[in-house]
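User: Structure please.
Assistant: Input sequence and predicted structure:
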Amino acid sequence: MTTRHPYQYVVLRCVPRVEREEFLNVGVVVYCQETKFLAAAWACDNARLQALDPTLDVSRVCDALAYVEGVCAGDASVGAAGRGDLGTRFGFVKAPRSTVLQPGPVHGGVTADPARELEHLLQRFVS
C-alpha cells in the first residue's frame, strides 16, 4: 500500500493588466508538509503572453517566476523570503498581491509523490 500525503498548491497567474482581470496560468507551487516538499514549476509561452498584452516584458515575468522558484528552494540569494521554514516560504508565495505575477486560490489534495504531482499540475493547468 502506498502512503499518501496531504498537499496544497497554488497556480501562478500572469496578470499583465490588473484592471482587466485577464490572466494566463504560468506556474504551479506545491507544498507538502509531511514530506518537507516545496517546489515551483513554470513555463512562459511568449506568444500567448504577448497576445494578452503586446507591451508585456515577458523576461520580467520569467524573472519573477525564477524568484518564486528560489523562494521555494530556500535560496538565500533571494533575500529574507528564501530563508524561512517551508511553511513560511509557502505562506509568502501564496499571499495575495496586485502585481503582474499573482497566486490563485489555495487548493489541496493527497499524493504519494509531491514532485510528480507538481509536474502533473503544471501539465494540467499551464501547458
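The chain has one domain: 5-125.
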